Structures are given as C-alpha cells and as structure tokens.
Amino acid sequence: MAHCSSDPSGKLHRSDTSSVLISGSPGNVDQAMKPVLFEIFGEIWNVQARLGQGVSASVYRVSSGRASTAAVKEFQADSQGGDYGYHKERSVLEDIQGHKNIVTLYGVFTNHSHAGVATRCLLLELLDVSVSELLVRVNAQSQAAVPQGGGSLPQGHSMWLVQHCARDVLEALAFLHREGYVHADLKPRNVLWSADDECFKLIDFGLSFKEGNQDVKYIQTDGYRAPEAERQNALAQAGLEVEGDCSAAVDLWSLGIILLEMYSGIKLKDTVRTPEWKCNSAVIVDHIFASNSVMCPAIPVYHLRDLIKSMLHNDPKHRGTAEAALLNPFFSIPFAPHIEDLVLLPSPVLRLLNLIDDSHLHNEEEYEDILEDMKEECQKYGSVVSLLIPKENPGKGQVFVEYANAGDSKEAQRLLTGRTFDGKFVVATFYPLSAYKRGYLYQTVQ
C-alpha cells in the first residue's frame, strides 16, 4: 500500500491531535472516487471524509485504530513522472517546520491504489475551521437573530477574533519571510484554527517560493492578489517575458484584505476589481470603517483601520513588513471574546451555562454531589482532566470542564447542547484553555 520515505515526528499519536482540518462534516463526495484507507508507516488509517479537492491534490481526514486523527494531502499522479507540486510543497514544509502558526508535517509516503497507480502524499496535522467558514457561520448567526421579514447588514467578527487572527498570521509571516519564503496564496481558506494549540495556522504552500527565485508565473487567488502580482499574471497571460519580481509584500496585501473582510463581514472580491479601489483603496477602507456599526471603542478601531491601510498600499515598498506590523498599537489593546467566538472556536475546555442555582453553591453537601454528578456525566464523552464550578464571581455557577483534547470537548459540546439537567436546558460553549489555566474566568461575555 504505502512506502515510507520519512518517519512521523513523534507528535502524531498524541491524544491532542484530534482537531479538524477544514470542517468537521464531509461534503457531497463521490464515494466511489474516495480512497477507503491508506497504509501509513505500517499502520492502517481509515478515510473518514474528503475535506477539500483542488486541481492537483485532494485532502482527506483520516483516523487510525488508536483513535488518532490526521490529514492526508494526496497529489494526483503526474503523467510525466515529475510530481513537481508534491516535491515543491514537501520541500517548503520541511524547511519551515517548528513554528506554532504553521501546519505540522508529520511525514510523507507513497500510496499504491488497487488500480496500480502510485500517488505521493503528505501526512499533516489536522486542524479545525477556516477563517472562511468562520465568516460564513457568524453571518448565519446574525441572520438567524433577525426577525422574520427583516433584513440585516453583514456582521463581521469581534475585535478579539480579528486581533487574534491578525497576530497569529503576522507571526507566521514574520517567520516565513525571515526564512526567505513568500507564501503567495494567503486567503481565508488557508488560515485555519487549531483547537488544541489555540491559535491560527497557515496551510497550503503549493505556490510558495524563495524571494528572488519565483518559480511560478501565476500566484495568489483572485480577490486577494496584490497589484504587482496582478500585473505579473497579466503579462504572463499575454505571453510576455515575466521577471517574477513579486516579494514578501504580496502576503501583506492578502492579509490586509482578509482582515478587512473579517472586520466588515463583506466579501471584497468584486470591490477590489473596481476602478475606484484601484485608484484609491484608502477611501473605500475609510468608508467601510465609517459605515460599520461594530460596538467598540473608537481608538482600537482606528488602530485596526490604520494597520489594514498600511498593508494595502499599491506600492509594495510602502507596505512595511510583518515584523513592523506586529508593533502596531492595535496589538497592545486587550479584548475579551464574544459569546459567538466561544461557540465558533473549539478548545479542550467546555463552559456549561444554565445549570447551577445559588442554592446549590452554598450547601456544601449538595455542591459536592453536583461536582460528582457533573464529572460522571462529562466523562461519558472523553477523558476529563479537571472540573471547576466557581462559588463566587467571576464565573459564579458556571461549569468549566477541561478535557484531555479538543476532540473530546467537541463531542461533549455536540451531545450536551440542548440536554436537560435538573429540568434546565444546557448551554455549552467552548472556553479558551489559556484563560482557564490562568484562572481568568469571564464574568460576562458580550
């Protein structure tokens, strides 16, 4: 079935690798075309779902007999035997491993199908929801909150989430650019949340190149393509000589568009094609910020606006660097997550609401009984590391359950939501592991 060409990193079979790459649910997949299993490093891994399919590769969620989960990126067989896409992405990933905001490569292998076709594969860390999905979900929530017959403007993400994503991606880009690489395909679908590491990570380095040694003419995705890449692509399409002078600045442009979409809730693909945008994007950015009704103090909004505008200069020399962007005052302002953030972003910690009355908290015997009952119930869904029910504010009466990994907490959240406990409907959200570990419990969340 498969022949190993390198060993996994050793992190693969940790119990905390059970996050999900793009979405937890399989799409409409032609099951006849989907492989049933892969033999990887001498072990059988079952294919649970196809998570994505592109021109040159497909991505699958796979699970082993030990309940470990991972992602397999299988490249289509190269008729000329070159396997260029596979070798390129593998070499880039192997060169940049070790940063917390870049997807982990566990190993590589060759898969031999029953038809005798050999395909090259990458075994990767399995991540969770993409920024693209987060935007769709938060807009679905805002639409659901509108009375029937009423309309609503698109709703962007909270400042906490925008800041979290911006910092994580800039940290990844700063590292990538120091190593001499340009990602060259930054877009919402290539920025994914890691439930266990509690951060966003970059994926898909198929168009990446060493700065000054660009080996592909067409880079970046429509809607997130920097002006200089647009010009370069147009020259290549016209059959003219292309020097390939795109630099790391193209990644800053893409991130500026991503952050503007996250803040506004508006897809900007059509906007960035207009003459008005090409003539003076800063005016449109100002208009978006002026018309967005996000309830947030003005100063951090101004800092975010100026950060985004600094990334969207038409002249790449004026965009600055990822390291410089991290020094923007926007990152010095603390924000608390909204309730929507805690629903959307999985973590190993669950927060259960609408369960405990004050009377339960002040009767010691009853309190201990509730602790035992809650722990017994929560252990049905996975390994419980700790359980906390604060008797005083902040967090008074809320139940915090720390699971051994995010996979268990996601299963618990799915099965506990809507259940009744002592006649009350359970409300289950995730909760930031780092805040829980520090004892930082939000009394109220916007």
Automatic annotation (TrEMBL):
Q: Which PROSITE patterns match?
A: PROTEIN_KINASE_ATP, PROTEIN_KINASE_DOM, RRM
Which Pfam families does the record match to this protein? Pkinase (PF00069), RRM_1 (PF00076)
List the GO terms this entry assigns under cellular component, sorted alphabetically.
Answer: neuronal ribonucleoprotein granule; nucleus
Which positions bind ATP? 73
Catalytic function, reaction form: L-seryl-[protein] + ATP = O-phospho-L-seryl-[protein] + ADP + H(+); L-threonyl-[protein] + ATP = O-phospho-L-threonyl-[protein] + ADP + H(+)
Q: Where in the cell is it found?
A: Nucleus
- Which positions fall inside the Protein kinase domain? 45-331
Tell me which EC number(s) this protein carries.
2.7.11.1
Report a single Gene Ontology molecular function: ATP binding
The processes (GO biological process) annotated in the record are:
positive regulation of translational initiation; regulation of protein export from nucleus
Keyword Nucleus appears in the UniProt entry: yes
Q: What's in the keyword line of the UniProt record?
A: ATP-binding, Kinase, Nucleotide-binding, Nucleus, RNA-binding, Serine/threonine-protein kinase, Transferase
Main subcellular location: nucleus
Sequence segments annotated as region (Disordered): 1-24
Instruction: State the PANTHER family in the record.
Output: SERINE/THREONINE-PROTEIN KINASE KIST (PTHR46962), SERINE_THREONINE-PROTEIN KINASE KIST (PTHR46962:SF1)
State the function annotated in the UniProt record: Upon serum stimulation, phosphorylates CDKN1B/p27Kip1, thus controlling CDKN1B subcellular location and cell cycle progression in G1 phase. May be involved in trafficking and/or processing of RNA.
Name listed for the protein in its UniProt record = Serine/threonine-protein kinase Kist
